[in-house]
Specification:
CATH superfamily: Nucleoside Triphosphate Pyrophosphohydrolase
Number of strands: 14
CATH architecture: Alpha-Beta Complex
Order of helices and strands: EEEEHHHEHHEEEEHHHEEEEE
CATH class: Alpha Beta
Length: 299
């Protein structure tokens, strides 16, 4: 990863990310990661969770008419009373739309059907329609689908600082956790993503530490936040009990000129109270971010 030192004065762009989870009979809780195309303008070559920017169309009454939950209830779930109801609902729409577009998983039901297990060829057809420029509302209308928001649980909110460290863009990203629907399997699209993998959170961090799984700080810290959980149910229950923490990384260059990101609870951060487990700062060393005291600080 290349370190950025540019100051970005534009407001952060709202976006949504979905942390797909499944329970493997032998390996336990696993998370799905996509590798972004190396030519991508944002985190090229890094492994990320499916997600992307909030589109204006996601916030319109036309598409929100296909939601299974009211915009007011979705705003309450995000724990952001100052957020407009339509934007809150739009973030859920963006999460569902992006996970379909990027890996072919769909959180939606056919009319009068409670199952999320659509035929793979159907999902691929709808995914290709989005890639071809068709609007999400048109996909929903044409297929008679109703968006399922009940499987998505808000997990955290990350806002890129004005001095982003590994990109020259700013985002205001809501992270959702979600169990993989029965009968569905994610597949990277070979357009925005060139590889994908299911891994236990600990295995993903171990591979990151070994140097063969490039990760950005929000993905690193999200994986750390999943370490206490043994299965998907545990994660989803924890999500329902909490108000999603707001994480505003604060960067500084230490006495040796090493870029450091500190998080709430760190002595250098403006917020004294911790909001998540794991290290309270990451240092940019040899092309990646890592804890001050090494791998053990993740645990």
């Amino acid at each position: 990863m290349q370190l950025n030192s540019e100051i970005i004065t534009t407001p952060p762009r709202a976006s949504a990310t979905v942390v797909l989870l499944r329970d493997d009979a032998q390996k336990g809780l696993q998370v799905f990661l996509l590798r972004r195309h190396t030519a991508s303008a944002v985190l090229g070559g890094a492994y990320v969770f499916p997600g992307g920017k909030l589109d204006d169309a996601d916030c319109t009454p036309n598409v929100q008419a296909y939601l299974d939950t009211s915009p007011q209830a979705l705003r309450s779930a995000l724990g952001e009373p100052d957020l407009s109801q339509h934007t809150a609902a739009g973030l859920f729409v963006a999460a569902v739309r992006e996970v379909l577009e990027e890996c072919g998983v769909l959180y939606a039901r056919l009319k009068n059907n409670e199952a999320l297990a659509h035929d793979a060829s159907q999902r691929q057809h709808w995914q290709q329609a989005l890639h071809g420029g068709q609007g999400f509302v048109e996909v929903l209308q044409g297929a008679g689908l109703r968006v399922d928001t009940q499987h998505l649980a808000p997990w955290s909110r990350w806002i890129t600082p004005v001095q982003p460290s590994v990109t020259n863009k700013r985002f205001d990203t809501r992270f959702f956790v979600a169990a993989l629907p029965a009968g569905q399997q994610p597949v990277h699209d070979n357009i925005e993503a060139i590889d994908s993998v299911w891994l236990k959170p600990m295995d993903a961090l171990t591979r990151y530490w070994a140097g063969d799984l490039p990760l950005a700080p929000p993905q690193i810290m999200t994986l750390v936040s999943l370490l206490p959980h043994v299965d998907t149910s545990s994660v989803l229950q924890a999500a329902k009990r909490q108000t999603p923490p707001l994480v505003l990384p604060e960067p500084f260059d230490d006495d040796h000129g090493v870029r450091t990101l500190c998080y709430p609870g760190d002595v250098r951060h403006s917020v004294a109270q911790r909001v998540m487990p794991g290290p309270t700062r990451l240092r940019f060393v040899a092309g990646r971010f890592e804890p001050t005291r090494g791998f053990e600080e993740f645990l």
